[in-house]
Structure formats: structure tokens, C-alpha cells
Write the C-alpha cells for this entry.
Amino acid sequence: MRLALATLRRLLRLGLILLCVAGVSFGLMMASPVDPVNAYLGPLVAQVSPEQRELIASRWGFDAPAPVQFGRWLQQLASGNLGMSHVYDQPVGDVIGQRFMRSLALLGSAWLLSLLLGFALGVLAGAKEHSPLDKIISAYAYVTASTPTFWLALLGVLLFSVYLGWTPVCCAGPVGVSDQAIHLATRLHHLVLPVITLTLLGTASITLHTRARMVALMRSDIATHAFAQGASRADIAWRHGVRHASLPALTLALASLGELFGGSVLIEQVFAYPGLGQATVEAGLRSDVPLLLGITLFTALFVIAGNTLADTLYHVIDPRMRRPRKPAAMSS
Amino acid sequence: MKTTQPRLRALVCSSLLALLLLALLYAQWWLGDLPTRMQFEARLAPPGLDHWLGTDALGRELWARTLAGLALSFQVGFLAALLGSAIALGLALLATFSSRLDALISMLIDTLLSVPHLVLLLLIAFALGGGLQAVVIAVAITHWPGLARVLRAELLQLRAAPYIGISRALGKSRGFILLHHFLPHALPHCLVGALLLFPHAILHEAALTFLGVGLSPSQPAIGLLLADAMRYLSGGYWWLGVFPGLGLLLMVLSIERIASSARRAL
């Protein structure tokens, strides 16, 4: 009963945050100096008289005051209509759906690989502080954390696509071939390099976090006690360390879905991969307001879902979290 | 020895940073028009003695363009980190005033944190219509919530401290407590937070310019240099892509190390 109530309260808060995201992003769109009629017309703008412009403005409701427009937009949103994207000439919902499915392959595999790789590296590094292996892994993590995402992708294209010719230079499949006709192997071949770049960048934070956890454990009484009983370092790392550090790594990975999406925006741009990230850039640069708003809401939902999942997992998996909490000084 | 070493390291690192700052701030003076001067007899020249890092498609020296780009990134990142941490400090201090205000500010923080950084950056840059100013403001607005959350937690914890209660019981005004207790406590955290924001701000500035938001294409920004290099990749002009990114990586990495040693010294 208490759990249900807590879940309900959390869901309500999530809804409120989503509403705030909608409000803030709508406000930003309203503040933009880009004229919506011009953005809608595109190159046709030269062929339209002032009277026709007014007609378009009243047809699309641009002449109404901002709060009224926001209300109408929310109403449409509630009935599932996100509007039309003028860049892709399709309903926004369809654009997001199609593109997200393509990005999902990239995002999902990079997420999983970076979690596994980052965790493994973190455990190896933290098992023995200041060992040569620890120094190498830490240095690697610090460097990748400071590397511009798109630069790494660019270097990958340069080395593997231009010089070695192992991977294709761009896109999700061969140019001029329709989506259905692309073979699975070809698709995977086009995915390899983007996934590797995104994975490498995602590992840094998980590695450093896991390493810190492992180092703390190795200095704790638990480890001292185990050492006294004659356990080897590998033994302790495996039996205590991995359990101790796996949950935080998983939560961190779930909580950094936003970063992952940001990385995919840049990587899709470098590889000209037609996913949701590329659509975001297109929408921003070519002032496709409905699409930009739709993507903002969608990605916010994505991030919020990740955070909530991380929170819930903690409560489900870690029994210590289920004890009644002390009233924290913060929440006064 | 053990306690002085991180402080010493932070000191050495920050003086190095100051030196770097001076060199980059005055880059415009000592580079002159070199980053934009065209040499038609040396288009796409590979790196060598005449052209240290090679030249681009218009025969412009890549080393000068890279330095100018780094200077711009540094300035934008600095301004954005400064602005972002000022917003964070201001709102965190405001949050101590009343619980209603605190709830409002927490909501704003949660809202901004739930949109991926790059999407928010694109939204704000779009709302401001591009330009250098838009990039600075966009980066600042996307980065303050993380720091504000830390500062707010810090200040709310402080508010429960006995000496604040005593100060209040002695009849000190809210403004006095804010100015003499909260602000001095929050300031070092805020400074370190600003330093930690700095590398992120630079990376995001480069990402934004790479995507083509903001700056005019004639300005040598690292992101624009790399976006330009993308077009010449298949021709094998590797230096165009490698050097600007390497410069950016080294700058971000050194600032990041300085920031972490400052945090450890705190």
C-alpha cells in the first residue's frame, strides 16, 4: 500500500516535470526570432503576398497569443497529435518512431557494451590501487572523458574507412537502396564503427565510478578481514567487489541516458546515420518547430524513464534501501 | 607533506592555467590575420617545415587557425562557466529563503536536467537565433542545474547548523546571514564547481559549432574547423581533422586535471 502510494506520487511528479519540459521548450520556441511563417514556407517565401502570409498565420494559429497557442498545442498533444514536420513532410510521431527504431540499435548496443566494458575495466583497475594496470586504465578513462565525441568518430572514419577501408564511410546502408532491401549483415556492417565510438566514450564515467567503489572496498574492514582469513586479492575482488560495485554501475548507466543520446546526436552527424540524433540537428538548424518540440518531449521521457528505473532498481535489488529512512536534514 | 602536496599541485596547475589563459587571450594580437590569410600557392599542403601543421583548402595555416579556435573555445567556455556558476549560486542562495521558492527552483533544476544536454543546447541556440552570444548563454543555461543542485544541498545542510540558529536567535536579518554565513560557505564550492564546468562547457561549445549552430562560418572555431575537415576526409587530408581535435583534447584534459586537483585540495 505504501509502495503503491509512493509510486503514484512519483508518477505524478514525473508528469509535472514533463509538463514543465513542455512549457519551457514551448516558451523557448516562442522566444525565437525565427518567423514561423517563413520557416513553414521555406524557399516558397518569395512567391507569397502579405495577404497570403496573414492567411497562413491565421490558418496555423500563429496570430493567437502565446498562452492560447500553448493551450491548443497541449490539447493536440493529449489527443496524440504532435503536428507535421515540414523538413520530412511527415507527422512528427512517425518521424520520431522510424528514426528512433534506427537509433535504438546504435544506442542499445553502445549502452550495453559500455556498461560491460566500463564495469570490467573499473573492477580491474580498482582491485589493486596504483598498480600499473590501474594507472593505464585510469589514464585511458581520463583521456576519453576529455575527448570530443565527434572528433573520435572523425578519427575512426579516417583510420578505418578511408585508410583501411574496413567499414563504410557513412549512412545506415548503401546509398540508393530502400530500407527494406538492406540485408541484416550490411546494416550491422554500417553500425560497427558508430557503436564502437559511442561505446568508448560511454565507458569513461562508468570505469572511474566503479574504480572508486572498488578502491573504497579494498580499503574497508571487509577486505581486511577477508585478507586475514587468507583470501587472495582476486578472490575478494570477485566475491565482494563485483557485488558491491555492480549496482552503482548499473544505476549510473541508466542515469546517463541523456549523455548517451547527446553522444549519438554527434556521432550520427559524423556518420550521416539517419537516426533520431540527425533529425534533432535538422530540426534545430532548419527551424522545424513541431519536430524539435516532439523530440524534446520524447528524449525527456527517455531520460526520466532511465532515472526512474535506476531509482526503482535500487529499491528492488538493494535490501538496505528498504529500511525506513531517517528524516534527512536536507528535506526540511 | 601529504596534506601540502595537493595544495602545491593545485597552485602549480592554476598558475600554468593562468599562463595559458594569457597566451590565449592575446592570441588575436600576436596571430594577427594569419588564421584567415589565404595562400593560393599552398592549398592543402601537408604538415612540414614551411607549414607546421599543413594548410586547408584555401591555403590558410592550420596551426594558426587551431590556436585561434582554441582561444575562442577558451573564451566561450570561460564566459559560459562563469555565467552558469553565477546562476547556480544565485538560485541556490534564493532557495534558502523559503520552502516554496525552494520547491520552485528544484522543479526548474529537475526540468532542465531531464532534457539531454545537446537537445537543450539546440533548443536554446534556436530560441536565441544563433551567434556567439547564443552559444555562451546556451552552454551556461544547460550547465547550471547540476551545480545548483550540489550548492543547494550544501546550503540546506548548513541552514540546520547550530551557529545559523544562534545567529538567527541573536536577531540577525536574513540578508546578514545570507551575506556573512551562506555566501562565504558556498563560494569555494561554487569556484570549484565552475572549474569543473569549464571543460564540459568547452566540449559543448565545440559540439555546437560542429553541428553548425551559432558562429559564422568565417570564424575559426574548433568545431567549424572539424566540420570543414569532414568534407576533405575521403581525400586523405588527415591533418585537417587530426590537429584541431588534438589541440582541443589537450586543452580540455589539462583544465580537467586542474579542476580535479582543485577539488581534492578543497
The mean pLDDT of chain B is 85. Chain B has one domain: 4-34+60-265. Chain B has ten helices and no strands. Chain B touches chain A through 53 residues (CB under 8 Å).
